[in-house]
Amino acid sequence: MKQIEKWLTDNGITYRPAKWGNPYYFNDGFYVSGLIVTFDFYLDPDASRKMTAFERYMKRKKSYKCMYYKYGVGFWFRVLAASDDTKLEEHEQRVSDAMEAFWQAEHARRQQAQETA
Question: What is the pTM of this model?
Fold first, then answer.
């Protein structure tokens, strides 16, 4: 990740460190660290060239997962190690499954309470 940060700094690309995950849902302290790289076409007239160079650079980094998201007049990229991306997806799936199970049980409880009333 340090090489990516150095490359971003050398090329004048805006980024910041970030953490993803929900350490409080299962109280397991889970989170993964990565980078948020932003390209704002309104503020930076050279953003298109920088974004193209960044995408080309990240295609060579096979051990990192780079996801992009659009916002208003720009894009932001989530950069994670491939292993961390897999861990994050698994954790998010476990949280989603736990919420679904909770609401199914809650719905059944409410229906039973309504039937007995």
Answer: 0.82
Whether the Cβ atoms of residue 78 and residue 69 lie closer than 8 Å to each other: yes
CA dist 51 and 44 (Å) reads 11
Write the pLDDT tens digit of every residue in 47-96.
999 999 999 999 999 999 999 999 999 999 999 999 999 999 999 999 99
In 3D space, the residue among 60, 56, 13 whose CA is nearest the CA of residue 36 turns out to be 13
Distance CA 73, CA 80 (A): 23
| Euclidean distance between CA atoms 64 and 43, whole angstroms | 28
Report the Cα 58 to chain-centroid distance in Å.
Answer: 16
- How many residues does this entry show for the chain? 117
